[in-house]
């Protein structure tokens, strides 16, 4: 339950207007720091909900697939460039961001990750890696501003952020697949 | 079968009795180079202090900036790199049952690469063709051989790093399911930082080689600085982590205690590895070309490094108090008196730790944008790193030398030599109090760094710095006495001290032994997280500085 408390604290910290404003002032920080931190806050808070509503998770997320599907859909939605614009200009979308990322991504991610099989995990990992590379190339190559609120240079920065993240995931997958841990542990 | 048994017997004997002679020779060579560098760099430092105080004027053929460059190179690159590698290789040999033959060979190859690199780099400095100071910021351009020498030094360090990785991996294969010994865990962390931290600077140096040859006409100054500090700050933390390894593992044994929680120690190490490299950005906090919001966010990244440092401070005082009370210390502070203050192996690292309290606080001040604007490019910064590196790290290294050198030389530390060490430590402390203290003060009054003595046409403000600068020279005089004693002590212990066995002091964990989680051993995962953090830290400034690059700069030789 300690974790859930930390998650709540993190969530409240991110809600503070100056903090939100600072994080949203730089495009890559908006997408690659604020949003993942919101997910992490939800991830940490998940045990509270799991304990409080065990039936809900049992009924609706028995094998983990609905949960992970929800995670993927919401996450994909927040990768669309114009959703960031919407969040900055329309108050209700901003509110939806602060609700959806912790509670519709973070919480179900934690609940599902232990339930889903290795194949689904692989699909998720590989899918997101390809997506990251794709988004990276899109943001780097596209010659026009995709967001009204951010300059072209910030877009290119975000693109390189996606590419480096994708490279890190590839290194991790390589480490995971090709290293024989049984030799060492 | 018989060979296997004899080998493991030999390993056990090694651990109990003493040292593998071949590994000892390697460690001794590294130590000898380190302390010769201390002697040379110390003498240069004295000359510099005297010139900076306006007491002497160095001749034109051996001027202040040449001396400054050589002082920096010898002390912050050669001394620390050779000491760190020698110390960790000696420790790996001790706790992993001897180095593998091929690893030993790699360490020798690395040794000679670094020596050759050093010679190639130092020649242009002596010829006054590379007075660019050790940060070698472009557009100041040195002769190409200076950069080639630096590249060779880095490659030599990489060979040593990979040697260590091979040895650790092989040990883990043989000792399946066991935790890496804590000292080897520290060594792994340091070599990971040495390798990943120096990738950026290697790219920079390769570009500068082409630039100084004239193959490429211009260089992006801001990118060069960014790549340099990704390394520069990591290097600082490598020294620090080396010192910390002795604080966690060795000092408790020397005072007769047990070391702090094994799991927490490992977590501190992992955190330092993960968060370190982007911290370098705070060295550029007043550089142009980066937005204010970004600088503000980077302050968090930098300050996060102080979190494991504070954990370390807590752990150390926990160990001291427990040990002091076990030895009969009473009352709130009675345990302090029970600590072995007369033992140089404790006294030197203890003063080092105490020095880190103001040193770390000063570092936090500098990380903050506004405060940095007050002290940036003043003598304050010089005072700061003479307190961190010149006191916290170096005094720990000196303290280590009083057991490590006897250990690898199969000799013992005599009570007389211990006394010499205590005196040396006191002289060093006094010298640094004078020198670093007055540097901090005069920096706040605006005296610039990286500048030879000048009264700026008898400007009243500049004249007001003079009394402080005299204290810099006074401190420097104490320090050179300290250097001479230390170098004498090292070579005496290496070649003339009475024969005998000195143990490699590694403290036992606390009882009851708690179980350390196995995930601490997943180095691959930590490296990936480290890479994620590095890209979080550096993608923004690098893309900005490369895509919106100003016109590059041709090489300049201002001297």
Automatic annotation (TrEMBL), chain A:
The keyword Transmembrane applies. The chain crosses the membrane at residues 61-80, 123-140, 160-178. Keywords: Membrane, Transmembrane, Transmembrane helix. It comes from the Bacteria. This is Cytochrome c oxidase caa3 assembly factor (Caa3_CtaG).
From TrEMBL, chain B:
InterPro entries: Cyt_c_oxase-like_su1_dom, Cyt_c_oxase-like_su1_sf, Cyt_C_Oxase_1. One of its GO terms (molecular function) is cytochrome-c oxidase activity. Gene3D superfamilies: Cytochrome c oxidase-like, subunit I domain. GO terms for biological process: aerobic respiration. SUPFAM superfamilies: Cytochrome c oxidase subunit I-like. Keywords: Electron transport, Membrane, Oxidoreductase, Respiratory chain, Transmembrane, Transmembrane helix, Transport. Pfam families: COX1. Residues 30-491 form the Cytochrome oxidase subunit I profile domain. GO terms for cellular component: membrane. The chain crosses the membrane at residues 30-50, 70-90, 111-127, 147-170, 182-215, 227-251, 263-281, 296-320, 346-365, 385-405, 426-448, 468-491, 523-547. Its EC number is 1.9.3.1. PANTHER family: CYTOCHROME C OXIDASE SUBUNIT 1 (PTHR10422), CYTOCHROME C OXIDASE SUBUNIT I (PTHR10422:SF40). This is Cytochrome c oxidase subunit 1. It comes from Filibacter tadaridae. The lineage of its organism: Bacteria, Bacillati, Bacillota, Bacilli, Bacillales. The gene is cbaA.
